[in-house]
What does this fold into?
Amino acid sequence: MLRHWPKAECDSGDGEAVSSLRPEIRKAWLAANPLPANLRFYSLVTLSGSRPDSPESWRHYEKLAKHRSPRNDSQVIYEDQIVPGSALLDS
It folds into this structure.
């Protein structure tokens, strides 16, 4: 998407950027590439408020809420933001 920005010089990479975000792809990658056991990992989960600020974010929020979970930040659902084996940071 950024390659359409004025003066941007981005190539298309492997063309799999969006599909690599699918939960099953990320979980398979984590299974094949275990995190180092000698380091602690933390997850910080974000959620949208009652209604995201921009109309585009709201559209994505609604789509995720309908098909996956209402607990999302308009890009990723709550559960998919947690790194397996990590400590969850909260306030």
Remarks:
- The CA atoms of residues 14 and 52 lie 31 Å apart.
- The chain has a mean pLDDT of 84.
